UniProtKB/TrEMBL annotation:
Entry keyword annotation includes Metal-binding: yes
Lineage: Bacteria, Pseudomonadati, Pseudomonadota, Alphaproteobacteria, Hyphomicrobiales
Domain Cytochrome c span(s) in chain numbering: 29-139, 173-283
Organism: Undibacter mobilis
Protein name, per record: Phosphomannomutase
SUPFAM superfamilies, sorted: Cytochrome c
Molecular function terms, GO-annotated: electron transfer activity; heme binding; metal ion binding
Signal peptide: 1-26
């Protein structure tokens, strides 16, 4: 082979290898981002990982298990591993994304609002790709959960501000990024009380007062508005950070489940700071 031809061939091979390496790095970054969101911010394990005697059984991570038995429905946290028969291994990427954005399964059934899809419409296109890329890496676990029972039609209402995906550029603003993170963490799902017509995410946003019975007894969600009398208005940033990541209130008492602080503890300091910046902006409610 002439030297010039050999050099051109070698350059082509090196370019192809470099491209493959770059693609692998990009996919690795995407999976890492998805893992960060699924395993920390979105607290997916809270509902989708079965409980063992000492807490979540991570040997069967995301294989389903938490039961929600309410007047309108009786549902169990789904198996979202890559098992093709009992999980989402046979779902297409588009079907996974459609469920996350709309709450609608591939068969057209609208799932119960305990799955916080009302908050997921805000997820950026890149983060949605990342979440799906990560879920594709979750080991398959065969675990058939009971079929859901619905006693009424389940509506889908988007959380205010989460009606459409954020752009990546919007995340460069600290407060907007904080709102984004607090939204996909569905903080206001628990920290906004039910009213006569459901949750008022305008008039009662962050007011607290929801009750959560469980093996721990009964916990009541806190007021996380800027109220100085009942909310976070007099808390320091360090105290809010301790509550989010350590489950310790301003007065030192330990917060009870379902507050997901064991998961939030692994969020980056920058992301926690952004969430705090957003919480400072939540209008005071008494």
């Amino acid at each position: 082979m002439p030297r010039r031809a050999f050099g051109a061939a070698a350059l082509f091979v090196l370019s192809a290898l470099a491209g493959t390496a770059a693609n692998a790095q990009a996919n690795g970054d995407l999976v890492a981002r998805g893992g960060y969101l699924v395993n920390t911010v979105m607290t997916c394990h809270n509902c989708h990982t079965p409980m063992g005697p000492n807490g979540p059984d991570f040997s069967r991570a995301l294989s389903g298990g938490l039961l929600f038995d309410e007047p309108p429905f009786k549902v169990t946290g789904s198996n979202i591993t890559q098992d093709k028969e009992t999980g989402i291994g046979s779902w297409t990427d588009a079907q996974i994304k459609h469920l996350l954005r709309t709450g609608q399964r591939p068969n057209g059934v609208q799932i119960a609002a305990v799955m916080p899809t009302a908050f997921y419409g805000i997820i950026t296109e890149r983060d949605m790709d990342a979440i799906v890329a990560y879920l594709r890496t979750v080991k398959p676990v065969k675990n058939k959960v009971p079929d859901p029972v619905y006693k009424m039609q389940i509506p889908h209402h988007a959380f205010p501000g989460a009606e459409k995906p954020y752009t990546e550029a919007m995340l460069s603003d600290k407060v907007k990024n904080g709102f984004y993170l607090a939204t996909i963490a569905h903080c206001m799902e628990c920290h906004t009380p039910f009213g006569a017509r459901g949750k008022d995410f305008v008039g009662d946003l962050g007011k607290g007062g929801m009750e959560f019975p469980g093996p721990w007894g009964k916990s009541v969600s806190a007021n996380i508005t800027a109220s100085k009398a009942k909310g976070l208005g007099d808390w320091t940033d360090a105290q809010i950070r301790a509550a989010i990541t350590q489950g310790v209130s301003m007065d030192g008492h330990k917060l009870r489940p379902p507050m997901g602080y064991p998961f939030y503890a692994r969020m980056t300091g920058e992301d926690i700071d952004a969430m705090i910046a957003y919480l400072r902006m939540v209008p005071a409610k008494e």
